[in-house]
Write a structure and sequence with these properties.
This protein is mostly helical.
Length: about 475
């Protein structure tokens, strides 16, 4: 029957601690090697008893005064107790004894960063890179990347990770990190070259394929990104993030059914997330399958009940089906969570307008222009609603407010013209109509939509015909 190695190690440390206590008390004891002191220090450090760890390292250094390892351990403990300058002095001493100990450089870096001396940390690590090779150099590059992150030198983080991957193309940590920093720095072309090189040497490196795909995606080369994601999925069919990103690429290409298929794979492979259900709902929304869109928006809202936007999206599916009463129920839920969101109030106003409740509609449109006075759509809805309610004087007043807040847009000229016609001021109305048509002829349809009967006015018909003749010449 095999012995329990943990039990053996536990018994071993107990015996070492017993001998250590005998040494401190002046009693007879077995000889404690340098390695024994390292284990004693690590034991107390693991127990979060820094005072005893420091005491042990002092005793150890008395026994082995030229041990660079014990001096480095003491410096590490001093950094943990925020005695940074004392730690740096000790590390200088340790480097004289053994300049090849990488921990000296890493701990010096920690001390400099803690003292807010990033420049010294950077210089130290850059100088140290020439002293180390292989895995130790990789560790220093990771350390340097962290310093650059703290120093907000983001392009240099990318450079460090690139150097790591040129030395060790299969380094998972570097592959994961460079994907983020490629997107952050926008260095997609360099990333593509780097990962194509890795794939040429290691064609089954799924992370390299994923990063290549993400870089193509960053350049909006969606077809190429999808092909690269597919290679990653051939290597690892359970790579849920590849399905997730591939779905986004399909959505960008408006291939909504393919996107849905990819997102359904994400649900199979990972925990349910509201953003995934929402994305599926979005795809069905785009396909005009509003019932399915609602189904997934609701599933998303069950996972994130405080996201007002999801209730709003359900409401929009009902609005697309002209089911105003159901839309209002979900909009009320959305506005309970976020009362001041202009889009929610705009939709509320539209629903009340469609159901003939004009006063309620006016109230909501008024809220929209209060919260977002520079947005044209809110003013359009308010003026149109006031016009439909027959409040022509108030509608004209709101046109003036709109032009002051949102600028003198052609749509406001068209609406002013319609209002003036309704108030019997035809000559003035025709002047505004002509000016509006000169600025934006395409918006004429909005003028007609607000009051189709206006086409029975011969002066209006003549003006439109005259304008079309002039444009055709």
């Amino acid at each position: 029957m095999s012995k329990n190695p943990y039990h053996e190690e536990h018994e071993d440390i107990r015996e070492i601690l017993k001998q250590y206590e005998n040494l401190k008390a002046g009693r007879s004891h077995s000889f404690l090697y340098e390695e024994s002191f390292e284990r004693i220090i690590d034991h107390f450090d693991d127990m979060d008893d820094l005072a005893k760890a420091l005491e042990a390292v002092e005793v150890g250094i008395e026994q082995f005064p030229y041990s660079s390892t014990l001096i480095v351990k003491k410096a590490d403990l001093l950094i943990a107790t925020r005695k940074y300058q004392e730690a740096l002095d000790l590390l200088e001493q340790a480097s004289l004894l053994d300049s090849t100990d990488i921990d000296i450089y890493i701990l010096k870096t920690d001390a400099y960063l803690a003292m807010d001396q990033q420049e010294k940390a950077v210089q130290l690590l850059e100088d140290a890179l020439s002293l180390f090779e292989g895995e130790e150099r990789v560790n220093l590059l990771f350390e340097l990347a962290d310093v650059y992150d703290d120093y907000e030198e983001f392009d240099k983080i990318f450079d460090c990770l690139k150097l790591i991957l040129e030395h060790d193309p299969n380094n998972e940590e570097a592959l994961y990190k460079i994907c983020f920093w490629t997107d952050f720095t926008g260095r997609n072309e360099e990333s593509i070259r780097l990962h194509l090189g890795i794939i040429e040497e290691y064609p089954y490196n799924e992370l390299a394929w994923f990063n290549l795909a993400a870089s193509y995606q960053g350049l909006k080369l969606y077809e190429k990104s999808i092909d690269a994601y597919k290679y990653a999925l051939v290597i690892n069919e359970k790579f849920d993030y590849a399905y997730r990103n591939m779905a986004d690429a399909f959505i960008r290409l408006r291939k909504y059914r393919d996107a849905i298929e990819a997102l359904e794979k994400v649900i199979e492979l990972a925990r349910p997330e509201d953003v995934i259900y929402e994305a599926i709902g979005h795809c069905y929304d785009r396909l005009k399958n509003y019932a399915q869109a609602r189904f997934y928006y609701r599933k998303a809202s069950h996972l994130n009940q405080e996201d007002a936007k999801l209730y709003y999206k359900v409401a929009c599916t009902y609005m697309n089906e002209h089911n105003w009463s159901q839309a209002l129920k979900y909009l009320e839920s959305a506005t309970r969570i976020n009362r001041v969101q202009p889009e929610f109030n705009l939709a509320m106003g539209e629903c009340y307008l469609k159901t003939g409740k004009l006063k309620e509609a006016i109230n909501y449109f008024t809220l929209v222009v209060q919260y977002r006075p520079r947005n044209t759509s809110g003013w359009e809805s308010l003026i149109r609603c006031l016009y439909n309610a027959g409040y022509f004087e108030e509608a004209e007043l709101q046109v003036e407010h709109a032009e002051k807040k949102a600028g003198e847009k052609p749509i406001f000229k068209f609406y002013r013209s319609a209002i003036l016609f309704a108030r019997g001021r035809s000559k003035e109305a025709l002047l505004h109509l002509e000016e509006a048509m000169t600025k934006s002829p395409k918006m004429l349809k909005k003028f007609i939509e607000i009051n189709p009967v206006i086409l029975q006015n011969q002066a209006v018909v003549d003006l439109i015909a005259s304008f079309k003749r002039k444009r055709s010449i």
